[in-house]
């Protein structure tokens, strides 16, 4: 009996020992599979982007979005730590359809989504009303393409831009037109948007100051593609040059129809119609046009950016993608310096940044405008836009001189 009891107790001990080992093994496996602090989920930081992704200038909106998206992807690859936590940046992209009402709706949507900052909008007409919503929410917004001066004249401390203003761009293209083509009579047309009318006003003001006669203003809309009535009226006045304030979707048909009506005038445009798409829309009539961009040309951007953009999107940037890329990186850089994605904490850092981006050194003045912004003058040759001059701080140099100085 005693021997039998001993055997039972021995068996129970072995079983308990085995259970203990299994339990320890389970604990070991549990501790191994549990996430360590370094493996904890990354803290998400949302950055909004807004541009027209549908409609006639969707190609420009997608170009802007691509610039922001590339910056987000590179930031995530760099495994940035903010506030002691590894971060994951998420781009929240919205389509404002180039419509001011839609622009304010999606701006509020981004505020409700608790984005830490916004890059956009593309158009001045959508950026200006949307900026009031971001300002009320205290969310920084950087546009890479809205050029109307009113945007940064509102006194909003959250508003910035990485390109120049129309009161810099308008005089640049107008002065170049006046000195290079020496027109005696110029017709000015705009699309009745904040951008188109704004830049047309600046061009007209500069031409008149240079003693060039300007015909009474003609207007269309941002959807006008039949310009025959306006152009027939102007043809009777025989202007030496025509300036159009508007986008390429409407500027292309304007130029094509002008040539079809036999107009010999030099056609010139602001940045909205300063794209290679003008060749597609105007055909052979596009050759010889003059236009300006509020910044350096895309091909003059940093080579690292250009290569990365081409690799990711299998195309070259169209217009302002380098500037939205820089805008996104400026938000991230300010967050890094503040060690916080809280807009109230990183906004002061953003305002005083000195940052070398894909488009050169970027610093902001007290209004949020880019200091010493360049303007580029282009002409269309053989269906391709070619930069011919750079205007900076009121001085004009050839594009070749600019490139040599930048090296």
Task: Tell me about this structure.
- This protein has 407 residues and is α/β, with parallel strands linked by helices.
- It has helices at residues 2-33, 58-77, 100-112, 124-137, 150-153, 166-181, 194-209, 228-235, 248-260, 277-282, 303-313, 321-338, 343-351, 399-406, and strands spanning 43-51, 81-82, 85-95, 117-120, 141-143, 159-161, 185-190, 213-214, 218-219, 241-245, 266-269, 290-293, 354-357, 360-363, 375-381, 384-392, 395-398.
- Strands 7, 8, 9, 10, 11, 12, 15, 16 and 17 form a nine-stranded mixed sheet that branches. A six-stranded mixed sheet has the order 2-3-1-4-5-6, sandwiched between helices. It has a two-stranded antiparallel ribbon with strand order 13-14.
- Helix 3 (100-112) packs parallel to helix 4, helix 6 (166-181) packs across helix 7 (194-209) and helix 12 crosses helix 13.
- The relative contact order is 0.12.
- Residues 1-38 have low confidence and may be disordered.
How does the helix and strand content classify structurally?
A: alpha/beta
Uncertain spans = 1-38
Please give the alpha-carbon distance between the first and last residues.
Answer: 100 Å
What characteristic shape results from the CA principal axes?
globular
Largest beta-sheet characterization: 9 strands, mixed
Which band does the percent of strand residues land in?
A: 15-25%
Rg over CA atoms: 28 Å
Number of β-strand runs:
17
Q: Helix share of residues?
A: 40-55%
């Amino acid at each position: 009996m005693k021997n039998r009891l001993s055997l039972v107790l021995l068996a129970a001990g072995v079983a308990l020992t085995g259970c203990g080992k299994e339990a320890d093994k389970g604990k070991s496996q549990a501790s191994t599979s549990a996430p360590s602090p370094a493996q904890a989920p990354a803290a998400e930081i949302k950055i909004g982007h807004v541009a027209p992704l549908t409609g006639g200038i969707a190609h420009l909106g997608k170009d802007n979005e691509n610039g922001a998206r590339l910056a987000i992807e590179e930031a995530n690859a760099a495994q940035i730590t903010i506030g002691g936590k590894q971060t994951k940046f998420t781009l929240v992209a919205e389509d404002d359809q180039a419509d001011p009402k839609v622009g304010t709706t999606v701006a509020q949507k981004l505020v409700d989504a608790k984005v830490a900052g916004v890059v956009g909008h593309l158009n001045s007409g959508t950026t200006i009303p949307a900026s009031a919503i971001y300002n009320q929410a205290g969310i920084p917004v950087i546009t890479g393409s809205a050029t109307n001066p009113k945007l940064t004249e509102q006194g909003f401390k959250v508003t910035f831009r990485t390109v120049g203003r129309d009161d810099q761009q308008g005089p640049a293209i107008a002065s170049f037109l006046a000195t290079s083509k020496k027109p005696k009579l110029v017709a000015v047309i705009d699309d009745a948007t904040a951008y188109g009318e704004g830049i047309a006003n600046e061009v007209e003001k500069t031409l008149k100051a240079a003693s060039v006669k300007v015909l009474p203003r003609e207007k269309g809309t941002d959807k006008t593609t039949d310009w025959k009535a306006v152009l027939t009226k102007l043809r009777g006045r025989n202007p030496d040059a025509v300036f159009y304030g508007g986008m390429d979707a409407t500027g292309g048909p304007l130029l094509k129809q002008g040539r079809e009506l036999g107009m010999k005038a030099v056609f010139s445009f602001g940045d909205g119609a300063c794209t290679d798409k003008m060749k597609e829309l105007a055909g052979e009539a596009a050759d010889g046009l003059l236009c300006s961009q509020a910044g350096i040309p895309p091909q003059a951007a940093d080579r690292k950016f250009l290569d990365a953009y081409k690799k990711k999107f299998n195309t070259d940037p169209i217009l302002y993608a380098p500037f939205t890329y820089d805008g996104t990186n400026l938000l991230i850089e300010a967050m890094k310096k503040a060690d916080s994605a809280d807009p109230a904490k990183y906004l002061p850092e953003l305002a005083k940044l000195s940052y070398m981006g894909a488009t050169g050194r970027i610093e902001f003045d007290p209004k949020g405008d880019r200091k010493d912004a360049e303007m580029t003058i282009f002409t269309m040759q053989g269906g391709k836009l070619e930069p011919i001059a750079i205007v900076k701080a009121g001085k004009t140099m050839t594009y070749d001189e600019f490139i040599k100085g930048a090296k």
